[in-house]
Structures are given as structure tokens and as C-alpha cells.
Amino acid sequence: MSKVRGTINAGNITDKEFFYGHKACAGCGGSIVVRLVLKVLGERTFTVIPAGCMSAVGFVYPQLCFANNAIISTFAGTASMLSGIAAGAKALGLKDYHVVGIAGDGGTADIGIQALSGAIDRGDKIIYICYDNEAYMNTGIQKSGLTPYGAKTTTTPAGDNIPGTLTQKKNMFEIVAAHGIDYAATASIGYIQDFINKIQKASQVDGTSYIHVFAPCPTGWGAPLDSAIDIAKEVVDCGLWYLAEYENNEYTLNKNPKKFTSVEEYLKKQSRFKHLTKEDIDRIIISRDKKWNLIRSKWSC
Amino acid sequence: MNRPKLREYAKPKHIKDYPVGPCYTAGHLVTENASWRTEKPIVESNKCIGCFYCYLCCPEGVIYKKDKLVDIDYAFCKGCGICARVCPKKAIKMIREGEDHEK
Questions:
Q1: Contact, A33 vs A198, CB < 8 A?
Q2: Interchain CB contact of A22 with B (< 8 Å)
Q3: How many structural domains compose chain B?
Q4: Inter-chain contact A226–B81, Cβ cutoff 8 Å?
Q5: What domain range includes position B86?
Q6: Which of chain A's residues have a Cβ under 8 Å away from the Cβ of B69?
Q7: How many beta-carbon contacts under 8 Å exist across A and B?
Q8: Does residue B42 form part of some domain?
Q9: Cβ–Cβ under 8 Å, residues A271 and A222
């Protein structure tokens, strides 16, 4: 356990880069997540990346873009490999280190959920980061359990019969929290300081921590290259994503917008939602309001 | 050294030159990303207030601090334009690659 430090911000964060020269698409939201996580945790971090964009773009032999200790795991085994590394580091008597896994939405909510559940159950001292870009981007934009209603993917094409994805986004944050985890949080790269604070908090927890961070994919979402940060901010402002924390068996909402910005405006900036009709958008707004009523009545705001 | 440096890749000539396991040195960079770019960011240092927001938002980590302001490592910049879009002072502009011949 590292000593409790002051808040990390743009001024005092380390100048060292630990994720550099990678081959991710220009403007990738996921690579902002990886870069910031490693910068906050520092050099003495063991990183586990499952199959997915970040392993495909980070380990292009002989180009090794991780400047710290990093390894690719099986798609399903991110959290179990984290448990193994944590146990190994403990057995070696190492001091002052972090064990972090950075998986995408498919690797977390679908394929890796069993290993994650097991690791939380054991209470291993690991940090699990899910960068949520709402589909399997690496293999060509297939629907995952975290793809929201109405999004067009290559496995849920929009047409006359269906408006793209018909299912709702899995509530991964509350699934994790329901385990009674030591620390869980949602974040967005549109609110970077909040995200950095949460990584720092997770690093100081003596047990399992989980951060679910919203990370737009311009390529898969059909949005301009420079829009990742703006989209990630707008999704929070329009209420389709929320910033919250779970610790000591309590949910806390970090940002409670008085008035939401337009959902339609948020959706129409991305070509994956271009086909949505007025009724589809109303349906999305109704489910958003239902969610927020629940949040505001049950969580501390 | 804050960022891994580019180094030359010695192409293996014999089977012995290959690594034994599927492991390799961390931060071993042999190719640049500059050729991905069609537009490049230019920092106007008279407008920059050194808030370092672009530095945090850059997906590549190519923006670095220099004399309390920012500078860019063009060898690895892909020209996505996030820095120009998020800058609160509009101190970064994107120009088409090749338009800055005077430099």
C-alpha cells in the first residue's frame, strides 16, 4: 500500500509516459483511459490487458508500447490473472506496487464477468478498469452486453424491422457493487479530473476496486476524430451516463445535473444513432428518467 | 527520459536472434506514427495559459510540458485534433500537413 498522497492533477501528474507509440485509431477514447490510469498508478504497476483493442494496438511486435510491466491475458481471464499476479507479488514480498487490469466492455460485461466476479468475491487487492466503448470494437463493432438501446452495430444492423440494438445496456456498476466490493465507481473521460481522483482512490483501497469509465470510440460510433472528450462529457450532461461511487455499502452520486441537455442532440452526433425515430428517442428518454428517479430516491446525492 | 525513445530494429538473421519466449523489452519503439497524420496541431504559445488540459486529454501522450507551456512530439502525433478542440483558449490550431513550409 502506497502512502496517501495529495490529489493528482494536470500540474503534478508524472511527466513519464507508460503507453506510448501505440497503434490505436487517431482520437481513441480507450487509449486516453489506459494512458491516464498508468500515469496515475506509476511505474511500479503490473498491467493485464485481455484480447481487445488495447492489446491489439499496444503489443505490435517488436513495437512494445507499454513502458511498464504488461501482459496480455485470455479474453475471459483478466481478473483471474490479476489475482495470480497479486498472489505472486505478495509471495515475493514486493512493496509499493499496483496490479491493474484494463479490459473493454465485452471483456468485462460478457466474456470476463465470471473471473471478475470471482476476484471480487475473494477480495483480492487488485484494480479493475473497464473502458466502455459500447461494442466489440477490435473485431469490427459487434454488439456487446454494454451496447445501448438503438445503437447500430455490425451484428445489430438498423433497418425497417429493428432500430439496431434492442436490448438495454447491462448495469455493470451495480452488478459489481452488489458483490459488496470495497470500492466501485463510474467515470467518464469527459470529466478527467473526476476520473483521475477515482483511479487514485482505487489505488489506495485495501481490497478489490472497480472503475467503469465511459470511453467513446470515434471509429465505431461514426463520430469526428476529435470528438471523444466532448461526447464523453455530453453523455453525462444529458443523463445517459452518471458519475457515481460505491463504498462502505453505500451509493453516492457525484454529479446531479439540475437540468439535462438534449438527448437527441447527443445521439444525432453519432452515425450509429442516425436512424433513430422520434419514438425510439422518447423510449430512451423514458428509460433515462426512470433510472434517475431511482438514483435520486435511493442514492445519496 | 520521460518517453520511450525510438530505436532501430535489428532484423533477426538467425534463429538465435529471436527472443526465447513471447516477451520483449517494455517501451521498445521501432516505428513512428507521424505518417498517419493529414492535419497537424500548432501551439500558439502567446495564447497558451499552461492549464495542461490538452496534455491530459491527448490519447497518444505526445503533448509534453515545456517552460510552463506545452509542446508536441510530432513523431508520434496522429493529428486527431482533440487538443485543438478541448483547448479553453483556442491556442492550438490544426493546419493541413505540408502547409507549414516556412518552418
A1: no
A2: yes
A3: 1
A4: yes
A5: 33-96
A6: none
A7: 106
A8: yes
A9: yes
CA of A189: which chain B residue's CA is closest?
B57
Output the domain CATH number for residue B76: 3.30.70.20
Residues A29-298, CATH architecture: 3-Layer(aba) Sandwich (3.40)
Judge contact between A67 and A58, C-beta under 8 A. Answer: no
Q: Are B74 and B40 in contact (CB under 8 A)?
A: yes
> How do residues B4-22 score in pLDDT, each as one tens digit?
889 998 888 999 988 777 7
Minimal CA separation from A201 to chain B, in Å: 18
| Alpha-carbon distances, residue A266 vs A7, A73, A278, B81 (angstroms) | 32, 35, 14, 20
Cβ of B52 and A11 within 8 Å?
yes
The reply to whether B53 falls in a domain is yes
Answer yes or no: is B55 within a domain. Answer: yes
Task: Delimit the domains of chain A by residue range.
Answer: 29-298
Beta carbons within 10 angstroms of residue B97's beta carbon: 14
Asked if pLDDT for residue A246 goes beyond 90, the answer is: yes
User: Which of the residue ranges A58-67, A202-211, B72-81 would you say has the lowest mean pLDDT?
Assistant: A58-67
Q: Is the pLDDT assigned to residue B1 strictly greater than 70?
A: no
Q: What is the pTM of this model?
A: 0.94
- Residue B101, min C-alpha distance to chain A (Å): 24
Q: What is the pLDDT of residue A1?
A: 31
Answer yes or no: is B10 within a domain: no
Task: Please state which of the ranges A170-179, A278-287, B24-33, B71-80 shows the lowest mean pLDDT.
Answer: B24-33
